[in-house]
């Protein structure tokens, strides 16, 4: 452009000839060409030069670089600069001075790229704010054109708020700061968020300095999570915990608020640096307990919905924010405490009776079973002692079986009352949970809500008969059904079991009896009250041997007695003879004396 200032008019130019159409002289033409050439820049191909925008079209931008013709550059190369206007100076790269059409070919993109890496490093070093064109989305962020280089804009660096629509930023020119450069891989990372943060930091300081507990502020819902809602208070974020959104139960904060919603909140707490601010929404509304019907009292019936379930009970909401607990023990008259889920589920509409009501503590307990009659009222009339009933086995203990005659009416069948004859170690040997059992009422304990029941009492006591069958000394065939260290259990006729100690299990050949062996057993003890029979196998053959020995001894004694009698008789005869002789001598002596 400076060359134009040096142009001077030709001193001997003949204007009359020029107007009449006469051609100029060769000398003057040469002078004119030289003067024209001097007005053009001495541009070289593959160089970078400055040019002036002369025309802006939809497809092309015309740029004058001081050459004999203007150069055209695709408009797409200026997308990063939407503010481009005629007269602006731009960098251009001289592709070629003339193409096939004689057109000057320029490139703005290559001109930018030739110095782009140098300019990027300068911008980082000087903490410079630069402009960039958002080209497209990519994984985790956006691709931005900066000085002709494709830089990465992470999603977290777009804005201080979470971005929900990345596509809204595509094809936009924005301001950025370069935050990181990888010289080895020529990677550039930019941020728009740092510009916003710097602006908000000052606002934040002003807001934080004025915060006070109990203060009510207007905020905007910034983010919703499962545990609460983040509120933008104008550069400062606060959290409304899910429990502070409503006096009633809230499954998810989205039930109460929505994104970008404006609402009033109250400051509940904040730390010393006021970086964590706890906000409340429900605190701006009256507590539902304060508006609860004043006439509501213990014993009244209420309706509500089950909102929370636990193993120990169910929470029922009878009004928004007003809940009562139905403990599992108040759900049924049954004595078997099961999980509350066996009776109720979340969402169930129920009617219950108020059991306790504490307005100061804002607590209430409810009951379901109170809507039904207590089954223990009139228990003596419905289940008198001696009456027989069918019951269902609920569970076992080591000492017996717990059964339920009807809902809420339980009883215990002691292990000793299960069978007259069998020795039962554990009730599971006799029955199983859920099975039906015939029982007879033995005792009623109304105060503790227990019945003493019996099963064997439904049959006559066979031990009265067994007493006549299994007399001590009687012999019966038995089978060893269980061997233990202390002895063996022996199965006897009529389903009776006896017991034999190890010394009574010795067989005649000296060997020990084995399990499942069938042998003869002699009853050596019978106890009707204890229902105990002690038997012995060894006594069978031992007593036989003893009897044989006793018989032999008896025969020997008899023979000996006979022998003794014979001797005695012989002696008696001899004695008698001697006596007669003595008498003869005595008579003779007497006769001599008389003479």
Entry keywords:
five-stranded antiparallel beta sheet; 7 helices; five-stranded mixed barrel; alpha+beta; disordered N terminus; 595 residues
In short:
With 595 residues, the chain is of the alpha+beta class. The model is unreliable at 1-5 (pLDDT under 50). It contains seven helices and 30 strands.
Any overview of this molecule?
With 595 residues, the chain is an alpha+beta fold. The longest helix has 57 residues, at 538-594. The protein contains 7 helices and 30 strands. A hairpin with a 6-residue loop joins strand 2 (60-64) and strand 3 (71-74). It has a 5-stranded mixed β-barrel. The protein has a 5-stranded antiparallel beta sheet with strand order 8-7-6-9-10. A 5-stranded mixed barrel has the order 11-12-13-15-14.
How are the elements arranged and paired?
Layout: H1 15-20, H2 26-39, E1 48-56, E2 60-64, E3 71-74, E4 89-96, E5 104-107, H3 108-125, E6 129-138, E7 141-146, E8 149-154, E9 173-182, E10 187-191, H4 193-209, E11 216-224, E12 228-232, E13 237-241, E14 262-270, E15 277-280, E16 301-310, E17 313-319, E18 322-327, E19 349-358, E20 363-367, H5 379-382, E21 388-397, E22 400-406, E23 409-414, E24 436-445, E25 450-454, H6 463-469, E26 475-483, E27 488-491, E28 497-500, E29 518-527, E30 532-536, H7 538-594
Parallel strand pairs: 3-5, 13-15, 18-20, 23-25
Antiparallel strand pairs: 1-2, 1-4, 2-3, 4-5, 6-7, 6-9, 7-8, 9-10, 11-12, 11-14, 12-13, 14-15, 16-17, 16-19, 17-18, 19-20, 21-22, 21-24, 22-23, 24-25, 26-27, 26-29, 27-28, 29-30
